[in-house]
Amino acid sequence: MTPTKGKFLFPLLFFFALTSVLSSCSPKLTEAQRMAKKVVKRGYEEQRVEMRGVWMPTVGRTYYRGKTPQEIRVYLTEALDRFEKLGINAVFFQVRSEGDAFYASGYEPWSRYLTGTQGKAPSPYWDPLDFMIKEAHKRHMELHAWINPYRVALNASEPVSPLHVSSRHPEWCVKYGDLILLNPALKEVRDYTADIVRDLVSRYDLDGIHMDDYFYPYPVAGVPFPDAKEYRLYGGAFKTVGDFRRENVNLLVQELHETVKALKPWVRFGISPFGIYRNKRTDPIGSDTKGLQNYDDLYADVLLWDQMGWVDYTLPQIYWQMGHKQADYTELAYWWKNNIRKGHLYFGQHIRNTMDYDQLEEKWAIAAETSQGNVLWPHEDVLGNYKNFEQDLGTFFWKNKAILPPSDYPDYLRDFPEPARDATVLRGDAGQELVWMGDPELPQGLETKYYVVYTHRRGATEREIMQAQNITVMTSETKYRPLNLGGKFRLAFTVTRVDRFNHEHIIARNIPVVL
Fold this sequence. Notes:
Elements: H1 18-21, H2 31-42, E1 51-56, H3 69-86, E2 90-96, H4 112-115, H5 128-138, E3 142-147, E4 151-153, H6 165-168, E5 173-176, E6 179-182, H7 187-203, E7 208-211, H8 228-234, H9 241-263, E8 268-271, H10 294-298, H11 302-307, E9 313-314, H12 329-339, E10 344-345, E11 347-350, H13 351-356, H14 360-370, E12 373-377, H15 379-383, H16 389-397, E13 423-428, E14 431-436, E15 448-457, H17 462-465, E16 471-475, E17 479-480, E18 491-499, E19 504-512
Parallel strand pairs: 1-2, 1-12, 2-3, 3-7, 7-8, 8-9, 9-10, 11-12
Antiparallel strand pairs: 4-6, 5-6, 13-14, 14-17, 15-16, 15-18, 18-19
Helix pairs in contact: 2-12, 2-14, 3-5, 7-9, 12-14
């Protein structure tokens, strides 16, 4: 996920500040830079509906080792508390990084990053994924299980459990550099990965299945990927080995999407690709960039996945700064906006690159114009408040809570009418209390995740009501006790409910405060 682990085929070049890049109407400005100039001048406007996510990686991390389960739970709980306070509404928790598990898997061994030894169960026994789902949902956050489909060992010399897939099925694996990978050309690999996803979605109350940028491995100079045999056996229908490799990944993405939707249509399946699809010098539809390419180097045909509806969201990692000569953030933000047409578009934001170049406000303004939200990399820099990031974000940008963007309903839910219900404000010795009728029986997927209470002036229109600054509380209860309003203001409440697809339904409008 980081931009410093061999992902560039070019060095990080000298940064030109935004003020010099966008300082005039010079003909050197690209169309994206001209549009961004207006957006940045206008400034960031907080969104009521947007993705506000954070990645929680486990691969290569050592902060769980040597800790008791209780100490780990304390760490995770405190992290979620900080995220909730910041307004984060989705956590991308890495649960399968090396053909292993940060959960109770019947297929794969426990992760060495959890217990120190691959295959060793936590003692006392507990399930981190189950814990994270329940704790996230208490805070009205989504929990997306983040898996790596092909990588099964970062270091080929590292010992593995007898239960590990490379031990049980060495014929499915290939070595590339220091990595051990499942061979993307094999149907057995695709089916096995689908079994992993089926198990996760069936047994856990997940909101999403997430994959990042690791498909075919990042190329090692002078080292060809060892799939000549498979290309001879299975690649006859393809003009090039590149076409063959892309189709292998396409088949996996399609199968995983179908697996998820057959089980729980409200569970989102999304992918976070490397930030460049193709460069314009390679393909006229590409971005005005000069970096490594998803399509040509990782064999990830990201636009096809969106066009075919195989992903619910695309989350490109546009980690570079504004003004980067070979991969400008502004250019990429507008390029992805113009090319992702079916699913949601979110941006992966690199905290250090953003803060080191003092571009938080500019990037957030552009992202609000071009995408449906942001996901922060990595969670450690949020918790570490890197260069005041956490404080600045919470104070100036994410001041209010936000609701996640809604996903499309399956056909069988589209005509479902929202049942009417009563709501009122009661006044007693303990003060005022807003109460509303609970849910009737609802179709699967339309169950309430949480309720949202808006506070606003009496008689406000729906447009006036549904503003970020009016969100007062998110709650799982059918009541809300506000502060003593004392009759100073002519206020009213509106109550909505959010279902598993993140559609928001108004269930009580303009309930007046008792004066």
